[in-house]
Design brief:
single chain, about 130 residues, mainly alpha, two-stranded parallel sheet, 7 helices, globular
Length: about 130
Amino acid sequence: MLFIKELVKHLPPLDSPNPILALSVHPGAVATEQQKGATQAYGIVGKLLEGAASLGFMDPSQGAESASWAGTSPNVGERREEVQGQYFTEADGKVGTESEQGKSEQLAKNLWNLSVKTLKEKVNYDVKM
């Protein structure tokens, strides 16, 4: 979410001929094969966590709703000024639901700068945005 928050500052404006929308989404708690790692790592305690996840977490199709909405819904385009650079935990959700750290412009800028620096140092790529 921090990366997207800063990325939109480097994209063409939304009223340009080729606007780019950038949103971040979180699927929520989803029961996937990933929970099996808890059993392998923590034994019986992990098995209990795995069982709790299967009872209380969403199934994968429910977990995919927010990302599917962000990538395909005409409503995203209609709300583009409102949703640009925002974080969503549910399809067609409210903006501004992230934590205080998630709202931090400074943390977003720091992550961007670190990403640009890392790309240059590790793979000799200059970000031109």
